[in-house]
Backbone:
């Protein structure tokens, strides 16, 4: 399972302000 990658993407999205 690659939950880390998914969480990282979510973090990036939050940083972008999505």
Residues:
């Amino acid at each position: 399972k690659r939950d880390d990658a998914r969480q990282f993407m979510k973090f990036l999205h939050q940083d972008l302000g999505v």
